[in-house]
Each structure stands twice: as structure tokens, then as C-alpha cells.
Amino acid sequence: MRRHISKSIPCLTVSLLMVALFTGCTQTDNKGVESTPSNKASATPAPASGKPDTSKPVNLTMYLTNPKSDDIQILEDELNKMLKQDINTTVKISLLTNDAYKLMLTSGEDFDLAYSASWLNYADNARKGAFKEITPEMLKTYAPLTAIEEKAKLSSGYVDGKMFGLPAPITNYYYNLFLVRGDLMKKYNAPDIKSLDDLGVFLDAVKKNEPNIIPFNLGKNDSWMLPAVFYGSNDITAPGAANSTSPIQLRKGDNSLKLNYALDMPEVVQFLKTMKDWKEKGFWAKNTLANPVSIGDSFKNGKSAVSFAGTVDGANASYFDFAKEHPDWDVRVFPAFFKGSVDAYSYSNNSMVIGAKSKNAERALMVLDLLRNNEKYNVLSKYGVEGKHYTLNAEGKISYPGPSFQGGVWGVSNDKFIKTPAVTMPNYADLINDEKKRYKANPLVDFVLNTKDISDVAANIANLYTQYGTPLFMGFVDDVDKAAETYKQKLKEAGVEKYVDATKAQMDEYMKNHK
To answer: Could you give the domains of the chain?
Structure first.
């Protein structure tokens, strides 16, 4: 999906992460919610030839949440050359921060195309009328290649029985990884990192011997990493969310789908105590809760002994970036999930939508059909310009002569057009095989909690995580047991029991409709 941590784990602000987690990370097709009048689909009939009329030139607006980069202009220029020739269309691409994206949707701005995702509250925004419904007739006429895609890859675009977005047809395993300073591992005779204890041994050695390095230099937006590593290694997950700091959790092997309060699970409390111990030992900084620098940037700058990646390909790209700048580091890559099964993200983790007020929805859908299913368009949208951003060898394997392409349209990535790296880190194949071997389908991967009737409760719970959960998971409490009890009491006062009841009822309904 993405080549760097800054893009492989997109929800790196705690506030946005928690909104996504507590309003649901994916979407469902449960019945019962009416679409708003402004969201009704309207499709211009196709001419008698059966092909859409593109005689009128159209300029579309597209909003993405990519980091700022000159590559965006390169992408726009190259894309418009192709679109103008093929469907008499051009696209103006604009970048928005996550907060600006939220404001754009809530303000009801007129736009044609935008990136969306479960972590950007795709389902809730669809229910609120931000996106135009995409009907089967529209797909058949204006996106015929998309219309014949596997239903499983399109199903997560449905919200309450109607399609409001096109999920990227790419499989992304939930398989996080550590990048570690191998030179320091060798220097202090640290073991390969196959468990949390092994990681602790390495961090301890760095803390005691490298005064200029903070062993695990987390930033203020990196708190999600700690529960992610724990839950990812213990077959525990939140309903419909692969990576979650939700107050309620499921055990993957429990076919009854019993909901558990996370803070009542003994292994969770023990993990919190371990994190408290790590914080006291100085494995991360005292100002971590205010540190604006991500762990990835700290690692790159030689200020952290460990970094993080969200995908094997992201780790592979980072590996070579680091190796180029610091060949003496002997960077090594280990799975951050030490045991247990591996989930795959819902396809809705990356999506594209059409604005509810778009006056050119049909042409926008034609653009998406090309971006998703035409190799020339898809490769441009993911890898950039051949010769500038990447090269292909005789076997079709890809290399990167310079920095990573920062102009991608992540919401259209397609499994069919993924390029295998020509050069890989030493254990690349082993890691790819490991994630596939350990993959186990999550029956709730596309489930999302509809918080319409408990919106105040969900908002309060999200705020409580910021206030009480983050310090607890990062060890910034005086006493773990007392802090956990306080957090539990605050959750109870906020109505967490009502939240659990709603989740259970909707889960049961979802499972009944997805047998």
C-alpha cells in the first residue's frame, strides 16, 4: 500500500485515530439508515452507442491526504496528459491535512473526487451525506472494468446497503515490523528480536551504553504502536478493527464473539505494567507525550535504535533508504507481531469517493475506472514516472533510483499491478511468506459500529482514551492498577455499557447477514 511508515500507517494523530477506532474502522451493509436527499445518485444516460459522451471537456477536483511534495504536481501533469487524450478530462489535485479534510466534508464543500478510508470515518461520512451513491447502473455504464471486479473487493464500499465509495482492490496484511540498529545488536550481543522480552533486552543495552540515543524514541502520535504490538501478538482484536485501542476486545479464537473489557483481561494489565517499567527505565523520553517527532524520523536521524513499518514493502523501502545513508548501521527487520494469527485490513482501508454535490459524477467515475484497472494509470498513481521515480528490469522487477514517490493516489492501488522489488532486504521473502502463512480471515473485518444512537457515548470514550488511555499504555502513571481502575470508572460514567450493548447487537446482526 505504501512504502514508508508515514503513509503505511496513516492515522498518526491520536485524535483522528481514536475517532476512527470508536466510530468503526470499516463499514457494514446493515439495513435501516436512509440516505439523505442530497446524496441521491444521478447518472446522465449513455448515448445510443453505449459509450459515455465525452465530447465536453471537464475539469475535476481531487482531494488527497498525502504529505506535501513536488511529486503531486508531477502526478497531476502526467495524469492530465493521459486523461485529456482518453476521456477529454483533466484533474486538479489538492492536498489536505487530516483536520482540513474533516472540515472540508463537514462544511459541505463541492468536490468531485477524494481519498477516503475507514480511519477517516468513511462510513460515518457516507451516512451524513458527504458522498454520492454509486449505483450498479452507474458502474456498468461509466466504470465497466470496476463493475466486473470480485464482489469481495467491492463489498466494503457499501454502507447500509448502498455503495458510496470504491475500495482499493489491494490486499494489505496487518503485519507491523521493527527496523533495528543491527550494529548495536552485535555490539552488545543482543538476541534476535523474537519476543517482547528480546526487545526489552536490546532497549536496555542501548539505554545503558548509548547516551545520545533514546532506545525507543516514540513521538506523541506513536502511542498506538504499543497496544498494536501487544494485541497483534496475542490474538486479541477490537470488533472490526485490526489495530485498536478500544476499551472492548475480542479473542480471535472465541467463536462466541464474547466482548471483553480490555482492562479486565489479565494479560492486558500485565502488559501495561511492562510498559510502565520500560518508561521508568528510560526506553522512551520523558517528553514523549509532547514530542512532535515520529519514531521513524528519530531513527533516521540516529536518535532512536528502533523504527516501525506497517508493511513488508514499506520496511523494505525504508531498509534501503537507511542503508544508503547509514551503511554501517546494519539495519535488521523483525516482525513486530511475535506470534498469533495475522489479519488483513478491510479493503475500505483505502478508498476513493465522489462528492455528494459533484456536477460531474459520471466523468469522475470514468477516471476512477482508469486509475483502478488500467495498468498505465495504476502504475503512475502508485510508483510515479518511469525513469524518474522507478525503473523496471527485464523481469519487470522495480528499483528506485532516488527518494520514494510521494504523489500516489493510494485509494486505487491494485494487486494486479504491484511490482516486485528487484533488490530486497535479506529476509524479505521470509517475511512475505510468514504474513501469508499466518493469515487468518477475520469474520468482522468489514464490520463497523453505527454510532448514530450513541454518538455522545462514542465521543466521550474517544476523549477518555486521549486523557487516560494514552498515558496508561505509555507508562506515564504512578500506579498501573489505580490508573486502570480510574480509567474503568470514567468509562463506566461515560456509558461504556451502552456502547458494549450496541456493539454486540450490531455484531450479531452483521454476522447473521454474512454467513
So the answer is: 23-171+346-427 (3.40.190.10)
